[in-house]
Amino acid sequence: MAKAPVTDLVVVLPGIMGSTLVRDGRELWNSRIAVMGRHLLRGMRDLERLVLPPGIGDDDPQDGVEAVALLPGLHLLPGVSAIDGYAGLLGFLERRFDFSGGNLLPFPYDWRLSVRLNARRLGSAVSAALGDWRERSGNPGARTVLIAHSMGGLIAAHYLDVLGGRADARTLITMGTPFRGSLNALAVLNAGVLPGLGGFAEPVTRLARSLPSLHQLLPDWPCVVGADGARTGLDRVELPGADPQLTADAHRLRAELANAAGALDAGYRTHVFGGFRQPTGQSATPGPAGGPFRTSRSLDGVDRDGDGTVPRFSCFPAHHADDSEVRYVAQRHGSLQNHPALWHQVEAILTAQAPRNFLDGGPELSLDLPDAVFDGRCPVHVTADGGRPALGVTAEDVETGARTGPRGLRHRGDGRYGTTLELPGPGTFRIAVADPADPAAHPVVGFVQSFPAA
């Protein structure tokens, strides 16, 4: 297949944790460290070097840390998200499009820092790259196309709508961007990372709680449910574990984005992709006696689902009237950017062809997994929308590539399936559920960390 020409500059932004971080030639964050798994304790201690000083706000810590590349493989922060890397997305773009002129710009960024700071850095990088591309291509009308996963979409939106980048933009494509936040950020800032590990997880929790970026992912809908059932926003309650100044600033950032986008004729087109049919946190209740908040997968008694990290109602900009123009795929947050149907839609957008291969008639699957297990036993719960497929589940050790399964899932009625996987040892495992007999059914993928029993 001949590669399609691209006349614009295409910029790819990863989500939080999605860039390799280097200081003095040493990688402090990469796919190997980010998975941790068998090297958990050593990896956690290394992360101490990335902790930011209090009160950093939108400033540059000037600690010598640089973002040098998009992470190709799995990277995760337990409880926040598990992202299956960007090699698949970048590889697809390079296979289908002609970027021989140098007009594909992966934009790694220091994901610890604030959205505002990274948006300014994006503006500088795009300005230089677009000027060079216009000169090399002889096309002074070339513009930018931004493809952004997760938090990368917030950075892109701030650059476009607040900093004026829309003047040179043609298209913004977002995938699972938490425009209204994610309850996962609330849970991690409040209870810490993997509280079941106790003191062993403290280095990662200190890192998480120092990050302006993670605070800027806090939910801005009224998500805290009181004893009387009434809902309140995080701007009116105390969230133990979170930095009060960073929390307040996160609310100001969301207001900036909403006001800027709602008050202008953007001048560029937005295409929003979201995941749905996955169990997703939507509300929280303060714990007894000041204990950790308890999260719920419903809001006002209704489960609106999402991608496992970003609720369905959070994946589109706040100024949109509803989500009727969102393209949904039944996939979890960390694998949205690797979903073949989504790739085909991106191809259709970039080539201005009619959408194809999006809704292919295959069954849509919902996968419910724990973030971590401590005895090797991993419960797997799946719901299939339509038909009664013969589903199987496979566990792959992301460090060694060793695979277990496929193991059949038992049908329990009403489209519900389940089993318990016996993971072979400690590590990080990619859990995939699919119907081997139906090639039209896209697998749904999640990640579980297995730790030795205490």
Automatic annotation (TrEMBL):
Gene3D superfamilies with a match to the protein in the record: alpha/beta hydrolase
Annotated spans, Disordered: 279-306
Recorded superkingdom: Bacteria
Pfam family, one: LCAT
Name of the featured protein: Esterase/lipase family protein
Provenance organism: Kitasatospora phosalacinea
